[in-house]
Design brief:
The chain is of the alpha/beta class. Helices cover 34% and strands 14% of the residues. The longest helix is centred in the middle third of the chain and has 15 residues.
Length: 376
């Protein structure tokens, strides 16, 4: 994505894995928003990485040297959450034998992150709204106002706007929180990132000395790419850990995957109008034949996967795709870090295999996207 060069997206690319345009757009937004002190509402399904984005916002901010304090609003009992957030004075309630700092005091000068803000009781929403508006609060049982010098980030997998219309969430608090909305796409909407994530999990497993890697056959990778991943990146990470524990040093085929994946992603193309195969390759178009033009159709699932697993060549503009002299092997990839001559050039043509099919990358080149690091 050309627009993100210089916007700071690269600063976070090693901490939020993905090379799709969707992820690059997200990281570019995060980089710009991080430098402000505005309140941010992060939305996305469970397992998409909402807390990771919140931490990136903190790490890229002027508050980065001060604490980042997460609060899981769904994990704290309703009777304790006010004391957890604002602290309490000695004798404020039965058992309060000492005064105690709350999360706002712990986050002084830094960032407080409300995870699953939709679970916050209505009675506490009023008090949080006051902190957002006036930057002050009191401990439970206290009368002296304290200043809240914190940045507030919040995240939810629920539709707060709909909840506010139903009276389940304060509308005024919703608008205060969503000054800058940041939406994280589910993994099924960026399937081109699945092989990149798989490679990352395998390499991390090796680097941590936890065991031998696994290799995946093409049918196995196709099944993983076509699976819907309702649990998103967290589910993919768990599946890969299972494969690494049970199949260390081995090659995993399609029938070696968990049954829920192999059963749901039969190798045959889906029938009907589901559009699953087409949805696998949103950033690509197909070039057919020697010197042919760009086709309107999107690649099939198999063509898309073939591109991911074997894009080892770069063809200069106008070169044929039949193996003529203008085709150059691209020796870069993940190991050497080399890049094409013009890394900012859009519509890079990448040779897939001897079949004569080319994909045009619509976003700028990312050297870690292709290579031999995933398959055996």
């Amino acid at each position: 994505m050309m627009g993100n060069r210089g916007s700071g997206a690269e600063d976070f690319s090693d901490r939020f894995i993905g090379h799709s345009k969707t992820v690059l757009d997200l990281l570019g937004l995060v980089s710009r928003v991080a430098r402000s002190d505005s309140t941010v509402l992060i939305t996305g399904e469970s397992g998409t990485g909402k807390e990771r984005i919140a931490r990136l916002l903190h790490e890229g901010s002027p508050r980065s040297k001060n604490p980042f304090v997460p609060v899981n609003c769904g994990a704290i009992p309703e009777g304790l959450i006010e004391s957890e957030l604002f602290g309490h004075e000695k004798g404020a309630f039965t058992g309060a034998i000492n005064g105690r700092s709350g999360r706002f005091e712990m986050a002084e000068g830094g960032t407080i992150f409300f995870d699953e803000i939709g679970e916050l009781p209505l009675s506490l929403q009023v008090k949080l709204l006051r902190v957002l508006q006036e930057k002050v609060y009191e401990r439970v049982g206290g009368v002296k106002p304290k200043t809240a010098n914190v940045r507030i980030l919040a995240a939810t997998h629920r539709n707060l706007e709909e909840m506010s219309r139903s009276g389940l969430f304060r509308e005024d608090l919703f608008y205060r929180l969503s000054v800058i909305p940041v939406e994280i796409p589910p993994l099924r909407k960026r399937p081109e990132d699945i092989p990149v994530l798989i490679d990352f999990f395998i390499r991390r497993w090796q680097e941590e000395g936890r065991g031998d890697p696994v290799s995946l056959t093409k049918p196995a990778m196709l099944s993983l790419t076509r699976y819907d991943w309702p649990g998103n990146v967290r589910e993919l990470e768990n599946v890969m850990e299972r494969l690494l524990v049970l199949n260390a040093g081995e090659k995993v085929d399609g029938d070696g995957l968990p049954e829920k994946i192999s059963r749901k992603t039969a190798f045959d193309e889906p029938s009907g109008d589901s559009g699953k195969a087409d949805s696998l390759a949103p950033p690509f178009s197909v070039v057919k034949g020697s010197g042919g033009g760009v086709s309107d159709r999107k690649p099939s699932a198999e063509e898309f996967l073939s591109g991911i697993l074997s894009c080892r060549y770069r063809t200069e503009a106008g070169a044929s795709c039949s193996g003529e002299s203008r085709e150059k092997p691209f020796p870069g990839g993940r190991d050497t870090g080399n890049q094409p001559d013009n890394p900012d050039r859009e519509d890079q043509e990448v040779r897939l295999d001897p079949s004569g099919i080319l994909f045009l990358f619509r976003s700028r080149w990312h050297p870690g996207f292709c290579g031999d690091g995933v398959t055996g």
